[in-house]
Write a structure and sequence with these properties.
Elements: H1 3-20, H2 27-43, H3 49-79, H4 92-124, E1 127-129, H5 137-151, E2 157-160, E3 174-181, E4 187-193, E5 201-204, E6 210-214, H6 215-221, H7 223-226, E7 231-242, H8 255-266, E8 271-277, H9 282-292, E9 299-302, H10 311-314, H11 343-349, E10 352-356, H12 362-373, E11 377-384, H13 392-402, E12 406-411, H14 419-431, E13 435-437, E14 444-445, E15 449-456, E16 459-467, E17 479-486, H15 489-503, E18 515-517, H16 521-537, E19 543-548, H17 554-566, E20 569-574, E21 591-596, E22 601-602, E23 605-609, E24 616-620, H18 626-630, E25 632-639, H19 642-656, E26 662-665, E27 671-673, H20 684-701, H21 704-707
Length: 722
Amino acid sequence: MSANDNKKKSDKLRQMAQWHNMPYNNRELSWIDFNKRVLEEATKKDNPIMERCNFLSITASNLDEFFMVRVAGVLDQIHHGVKSKDASGLTPVEVMSRLSEKIHEFAKKQYSCYNRSIIPSLRANGITFKNIDELDGDQKAFIDEYFHKVVFPVLTPMAVDTSRPFPLLANKSLNIALRLTNAENEEFFAVVQVPSILPRFLELPSHEGRAFILLEKVIAAYLNELFELYNIKEYDAFRITRDSDLDIDEDTEDLMAEIKKSIKKRKRGVPVRLEFGKKCNKEIRKFLIDALEVSEDEIYLQRGPLDLTFLSKFARIDGCENLCFEPIVPVNPPAEFCGYDDIFKAIREKDRLVHHPYESFDVVVDFVKKAAVDPKVLAIKQTLYRVSGNSPIVAALIKACENGKQVTVLVELKARFDEENNIQWANKLEKAGCHVIYGLTGLKTHCKICLVVRRDDDGIRRYLHMGTGNYNDSTARFYTDIGMFTCREEYGIDASSLFNVLTGYSFPPEYKKFIVAPHGMRTFFEAMIINETQNAKLGLPAKITAKVNSLVDPKIISLLYDASNAGVKVELIVRGICCLVPGVKGFSENIKVISIVGQLLEHSRIFIFENNGNPQYYMGSADWMPRNLDKRVELVFPVEDEDIKTRVQGIMNTMFKDTVNARRQHSDMTYTSVDKRGKKRLNCQKYFSKLALKAQKSAMKADYAKTVGTPIVPIKKGENEE
């Protein structure tokens, strides 16, 4: 090892020792706390019952992915003998021990919510889930016909014996295990997979209210027909969750082929969780534990139907709209674009900000669509991380290529759990003649940017859209994100430079405006925090306000603690994981952290630095996590338009005043709803929806030239109340 390597190792160890002495919540444990906040929404009686079903479904889906990636990662570290401590001072074994305890407790709360809150509330609204022995004659006739005509043809009973090994069961599949005996009283085991191709629940004919039954209960009622030569002694449902984190060799000559190969491996990953019903037969339990080679800590006994993610579709059944949230309908067009038929003209006049989903994502789709058919447009360059299954953005890019435009698209094939979808889009784009690239080796390209090069009457001009969220028209309906359109020359130059880095071998340049990871973003944020700290020490105005999805990076957290100790007021909105601990004497007494969990998923990233009375505003794709700062291509961009600065500040101020969706984090790492005493009821998400509609109406009625600079319309006293 060289002297330089020794120095790096020594510096890292010294830094880790420093981090171990500061308050730091383990990332995995903090994530469980976030999922608890989602579960609280499922138990809130103020929320409509179908929305409570949906929140419970989200907790189950979140937990599935957590096991497939994060828990699997911790178990892999243990398997490889890793004993080093993380920034929280815990070894992988210690993390797993605490995780196991918290997840088991969390699962109990999930099923307590289902049995004691969801089911009774559904029943109170005339909706019931039936067991077989509760069916009347018409209902029995209905499931008999349904089983024989629809279910039976797709079932595959799989015996397990010396000549037929235990089958490879798909990740997250729901199955029924059986203990059988033959005429000689010999014992056998078998497995029946509940077909995922069929609806998990079906509605029964009912003379009173609405009645449903789960598919696995229908199958269980007819197991004798699948095993006519055997006696069924016991049967129980079970479910496997597998390690699904891809191990990709990026040095391969064909990245797409390598990812396809890794996706296939995902289906047979090592089991990391085995779920049973609470009363699972002990012989079946032993059979499955031995077959799947799981430990006792990886077993979860559930007091209700396995895989609560079915509640997501159930929450959207027809005829129950009155049991859901009043939908937030995006205004279209946003006030910023009222009175403009030419989107390029609107952008030439001034920078434009759109706040989704309160303002329709269609304006972003239209930007690409119009560029695709505009004869003055020469080229379109865009990054795609996650797109919808029927993406109008991709269709527009293909149309642009057919119209002779130069189209370059970076499709991130390594977007977790979207790999197959992105491979399909990449193939379609390539077939259409687009120049498709897959990103940089060792890095995920997570930045959100679209560049349109256009020949205007006064010369070539570059038009940009930059955002905090994906170019996904589907998730844009329930993710809150912010996008900005501009044609400022320096931004355009930076955009061209960024795409040159992504598409070729250009060395990262000195950007004029952009802050780009992994080469400059960490140093930028560290410098901005240090600047606020120094200003505070000099008695100058100093404040840091930020909104991120996750706050994990130890160095950023350490600098925020330094800022707090210097007297900097730090206000943070962190939806999910927060490893920083606020309110700790000597570290974070000047730091406030809230989390907002509500009808929409908070996704935008905003950063404001007071800068001695000259506040600097930034937005972009990056969270304060090591992966975003060091292992991804991320983009954070400054806001220079004064009207947009005012609007961004207003967005942040409103979110900190929320009394419905906000929860405050405390020094013991617990979260509680904000104190409502003396405050009006304010749901920031509904407020922003009203604001967008009011701004649009104002822009349509008034002379647009007078309203274009005031996109925020003051709401009258009382209008922020629900």
